Amino acid sequence: MAVSKRRACIFALMYSSNFLTSTALIFLNKWLYQHYNFSKTLLICYHFFCTSLAMGFCCLVRLVRFKRLPLLRILPVTISFTVFILLTNYSLDLNTVGTSQVLKCLSDPMLVLTQAVFYSIHQPKSVKISLIPMIAGVIINSSYDIKFTRYGFFIGLISAMVGTHYTIQVNRLQSFLHVTASQLLTYQAPLSCLLLFIYVVLSSPQEFLKIHFTSSNYIIAMATGLAAFMFNLSTYWILGNASVMTFTVFSKTKLCATVIGGFIIFKEPFHITQLIGISLTMVGVGFYSFAKYVETRREKFLLPKIEESNGQYSLPTPLDRYRKKSESSDLPRLLGSFKNGRYDTV
Fold it and tell me: Dihedral sign, CA of 69, 72, 76, 79?
């Protein structure tokens, strides 16, 4: 019981940290874009530079146990993340914000399809149904700002595909390499920072000259760097300890908070369609949470799974569950059997 309570507290801490730092990061970045001429790519490069320093410090003081990992395993994830960032920024340049949000929703059905086809992970029907109001809510929320172009749609679609691949690989790598989120991030953060820095130097070196540093600028830059470190760490932890679909659904709540925060902090216009969209999205999130709750209880045998036999549906009895468990048990092999009054192993 104590272990489960401790695990629940860690989950609550990581989810709340991810939610708060993600929302704070969006508003701090927006402030830097508007007032200090930071470019999007250079700012993300700076975020990973701060994350690299923080992870290095954690390893130095033994808060994180450093583990050697094969670079060839980490490099594909790093490259896919870098491409995802560049395509996302390019999509924002080609499309309106509303169009970009709608195109991001394509990652949800892509995720379900990719997991089913390539990894044999099939989502329950209730989870698939819960995605419908979430996606519809995002589309309605962004309907006032949707404007499609053929090239912009193509870039947004590729960005969603790369983002889906990146999130799945971060989840799988932690299990495959037997590493924690912090150990994986210790490798991936400096590599991502290096690749983004090389891209900025080669494509637009004048971006470094546009930055004007002031005392308030330093404070906000330090705040956004700290928020980026906490966001990256909590994101990797959630992807490693929960399902990728759960993280995708959780991201929808952050989108709703961003829209509301933009109205309160930056006095952005708020349409009635946005309120309808946010409400519909949260209904989908609530339905997904309930579906996962029912699935968890069923796995713990608190709710029996309905079985099908010859077109007939029935609830298994306790005796049926005992027989099924006994048939799949390795007890005879491990304990052996008595034959002719003596013990022979099987």
Answer: positive
